[in-house]
Amino acid sequence: EVTLVESGGGLVQPGGSLTLSCEASGFTFDNHGIGWFRQAPGKEREGIACISSWDGRAYYSDSVKGRFTISSDNAKNTFYLHMSGLKPADTAVYYCTADTTGLNFLKKPYGPDYWGRGTQVTVSS
Q1: Backbone dihedral angles phi then psi of residue 43, each to the nearest 5 degrees
Q2: Beta-strand (E) ranges in the chain?
Q3: Which residues does residue 60 pair with via DSSP β-bridges, in sequence order?
Q4: Cys staple from 67: which of 85, 96, 101, 104, with CB 3.0 to 4.6 Å?
Q5: CA distances from 92 to 9, 39, 75, 76, 120 (A)
């Protein structure tokens, strides 16, 4: 059974930094893509960062490119989202995800196959 558990959300001031963690079980990063999505109140969910298991590359949405970095620790079966230069517009529930296609799945129809429960990130002064 695939499980994904996020941690690290909270309140941060504009311009600040925060790192989210996702503890994964039931699969390995060799055969599943891993990534992060978010959903702000009243907005559609957005895929923001993923690592493809097919080519090992990281992909980012334009909204976070240059500010957020996705990384993984295969030995711990944990992956991370390092966020810097945070803006109020980054306020959302952040979900860690996994997908069996292994490709860039940020815009995959219906979204990735597996989701965590989400963690709230609030950027406010």
Answers
A1: -120, 160
A2: 3-7, 10-12, 18-25, 33-39, 46-51, 58-60, 68-73, 78-83, 92-99, 114-115, 119-123
A3: 49
A4: 85
A5: 10, 5, 29, 26, 6
